[in-house]
Amino acid sequence: MPPETIYEELGVPHVVNATGTKTRIGGSRIRPEAVDAMARASEAFVRLSDLQARASELIADVTGADAGYVASGAASALALGAAACIAGDDLGAMARLPDTEGVADEIVMARTHRTGYDHALRAAGATVVDVGTNDKHLGTGSRNVEPWEIEDAIGEDTAAVAYVEKSYTEPPLDVVCDIAHDNGVPVIVDAAAELPPTSNLSAFVDAGADLVAFSGGKAVRGPQTTGILAGREELVESVAAQHLDMHAAEQVWEPARELVDPEELGGVPRQGIGRPMKVGKEELVGLIRALELFVEEDHDALTEEWRERAERISADLDSVAGFDTSLTADDKTAVAPEVIVSVDPDVAGVSAADVVGGLRREEPRVFVGADALPAGEFTVNPMCLTDAEADYAVERIAAQVE
Ligand SMILES: *Cc1c(COP(=O)(O)O)cnc(C)c1O
Predict the structure, then answer these.
(1) pLDDT tens, residue by residue, 14-29
(2) Ligand 1 mean position, distance from CA 265 (Å)
(3) What confidence score (pLDDT) does residue 379 get?
(4) Which residues form the Aminotransferase class V domain (predicted)?
(5) Mean pLDDT of the region 133-139
(6) Residue whose CA is closest, atom 8 of ligand 1?
């Protein structure tokens, strides 16, 4: 039995996380150094625009972008990025968002890039314009979205093109960026879960993206409620103007110059669309520390550790009657290899859904991956498990069958 946690003290069962960095069970294990930094951040006050300017410097340094900003998650970074693309440096437009009367507010997306997270773009006032088809996915044809379809959809109401980065997303990002830029609109990239490899910090900026959103609470292992936005200076300035607290007396309003230039804006903005997504000094400091450590980390060694743990779990579960295990293929592995467990209900006496459901009702709860339940499979992700927890998870998984 794993030791009790603060959650048991509060009367809440904790979770043994065998499903990877999932927000609904708390994301990743924040780095202890980031927790220490957050505790120290709580001891004194700081002007948040100064701290955002410091974070901007670090984000620019590690991504190669002009500037950066810390949002309250990658989803919040997308909402703020959309707000920046729609309002630019127009104080009136900033004040009216999400009402977009009179300003270009369409965000063009390949239909195959639509996810539940694009609600963040709409939250800023954008109207998402879908292009292309789902033919390849459905097997009704060989093509999904053609570059010309994206170009065709861009018009005077277009504020941006949005792109969800995965190793398999099409058309290629650089092609989409060229089309968008030829038509005078920026590209916002959702790369929330695309770290590691560290090389991805700069890859999408290099491909031409104007704004790139990463989650700070996934493999970066910063605070759960952080996201990293990297991109063009004037867009980051618009983000800052719409996110920082603006309850300021005009005569003494003097935000960090590196982020916001009051003369350029021509006045003090109102509390903006980003204000409900605030980021505290503790989160900012925690993210800065976590990002510094993430770029120094030996990711090959980590991947090796995850692979070894996954192989051990796979071998242990393979001996359970009715279970057949394998590891995700290298080209399908996002961050860590996962153990895929295929359940034969006739032999095991239970279905994959029974196993997953039973595990979630235990105390502590055990969460395994449930995305492949319709195929009679569940998955075990080694990333957020200690070796002791992995042994415990294996024991409880096997116990669902007995
Ligand atoms: C996780 C994820 C998000 C949201 O990230 P948060 O940091 O939790 O806001 C957005 N888009 C994609 C593709 C993701 O995987």
Answers:
(1) 999 999 988 899 888 9
(2) 31
(3) 97
(4) 143-240
(5) 91
(6) 73
Asked if 400 contacts 320 with a C-beta cutoff of 8 angstroms, the reply is no
Edge-to-edge strands, sheet with 377-380: 323-327, 339-343, 377-380
CA-to-CA dists, residue 154 to 21, 95, 275, angstroms: 35, 25, 30
Q: What residue numbers bound the domain in which 193 lies?
A: 32-296
In sequence order, what DSSP letters do the residues of 70-126 get, joined into one string?
A: EESSHHHHHHHHHHHHHHTT-HHHHHHTT--TTS--EEEEEGGG--GGGHHHHHTT-
- Tell me, in angstroms, the distance from the centre of ligand 1 to residue 215's CA: 6
pLDDT higher than 90, residue 142: no
Vertex 364 angle, CA 360 and 366, to 5°? 40
Q: With respect to residue 68, please indicate whether it lies within any of the assigned structural domains.
A: yes
Strands annotated E in 256-371: 323-327, 339-343, 365-368
Does residue 177 lie in a domain region?
yes
**CB of 23 shorter than 6 A to ligand 1:** yes
Which carries the bigger pLDDT value, residue 160 or residue 143?
A: 160
Whether residue 168 lies inside any domain: the answer is: yes
A 10 A CB-CB count for 246 gives 17
Helix (H) / strand (E) containing 260? none
**Residue 341's domain is classified under what CATH number?**
3.90.1150.180
286-332 tens-digit pLDDT: 999 999 999 999 988 998 999 999 999 999 999 999 999 999 987 76
Q: Which of 215, 221, 283, when mutated, tests ligand 1's pocket best, judged by the most ligand atoms within 8 Å of its CB? A: 215
**What span, in angstroms and rounded, lies between the C-alpha atoms of 214 and 208?**
16
Check pLDDT > 90 for residue 123.
yes
Give a yes or no: residue 1 inside a domain.
no
